[in-house]
Amino acid sequence: MQNFTPHVDESNEGEFEVGYVHRAIGASILVVVAVIGITGNSLVIVATAVSRKLQTITNVFVLSLSVTDLLTCALLPFQSLGLVHPAGWPLDHTFCQVIGASVYISTITSVLTLALIAFNRYYLITRRPADYQWLYKPFRLCLMLAVAWFQSILCLLVPEVVNIEALGYSSEQRWCSWLSKEDPVGIYESIAFVNIFFSFLLIIFCYVKILMRVRQQRQVLAQSDVAPASVVTANRPEPSEMPGQDQTSDGPRGLDAPPKKEVRKRDGQINMNLFFVVCAFFLCVMPHSLCVLIPGHEIPSIYTFILMSVNCCINPLIYAQKHPHFKQVFRALLRCKYNDIPHPSSWIRVSLE
């Protein structure tokens, strides 16, 4: 990575003052987002660690998403410093490059993880339990996440290797990002947009299939007060396959199937919660992805960057509001009532005894 000396254009003081107002507003919002995001995502990680009820296959992807968001939130205060400091970037330039790389990797990894979550829900609902358990063995699960992280790192390294763009402090946008050398559009922006676009197509396909499946099941449920075994299998509680974890069930199976209202509620809680997460991501990230493709729009890009950063603190709020299991564990942790944690992990049980 090459070092770039920050430069502040003071040829037009009036324009600089207007720009500083926008940057000051942005910096203040980013600090608030950082505090909320660090607290919320740390709570998600802790909740997953202390409750076996949350240690499901889907939540492995949720955990990876929280890690990327936590990393981004931890770096936002430094981005705020770069926005408002009169001398530009006051810290080491290598650290600025690390920040820019981390934010880029986290963004790409997040969208790929969301695609993996959507495919996971699609596969869980539309395939046989044996097929699902085979595909989502711990080794393959770790491999999926490793590929997502590796692809993100590869997307970062390609422009550096071909020497088209480099990471550093952008004197126009006033944060640690990428600096174009030859291409006015930007290789980093283009690669990020391609990843987001194709991930979005995969997510739409998976959730359309899920919706069709749920509608089909509701038609069957409408003919009976008790869900048939075949329908419950399609909506079965996700098997616990995290290493060293006991098999736990979130509800009855087989002949002891729950009433159709309970099954419908569970469908909505699982699928709609994840759908909200996906919608929040694309509503926050897509504007900035489109804005950076248009050169010469520094002020709008500041606010779209802020909107993209807000996504890093939204997911824990969605879990706390929409996800019944996360909500229960969050409440127990915040109130320090650890005995109320459902299915506590073995190390929690030992500490409570």
Indicate the radius of gyration in whole angstroms: 23 Å
Oligomer: single chain
Helix content: 55-70%
Strand fraction equals under 5%
Give the number of DSSP strands: 2
Overall shape: globular
Poorly predicted regions? 1-18, 226-235, 240-258
Report what the structure shows.
The protein has helices at 13-50, 57-84, 93-126, 129-135, 138-161, 187-221, 229-234, 260-291, 298-322, 324-334, 346-352; strands at residues 165-170, 175-180. It has a two-stranded antiparallel sheet. Mean pLDDT is 75; it is low at 1-18, 226-235 and 240-258. It has 353 residues and is mainly alpha-helical. It has 11 helices and 2 strands, in the order αααααββαααααα. 70% of the residues lie in helices and 3% in strands.
Write a concise keyword list for the protein shown above.
353 residues; mainly alpha; 11 helices; globular
Brief sketch in words of this structure:
The protein has 353 residues and is mostly helical. Helices cover 70% and strands 3% of the residues.
Write the layout of secondary structure elements.
Blueprint (H helix, E strand, L loop, with lengths): L12 H38 L6 H28 L8 H34 L2 H7 L2 H24 L3 E6 L4 E6 L6 H35 L7 H6 L25 H32 L6 H25 L1 H11 L11 H7 L1
Antiparallel strand pairs: 1-2
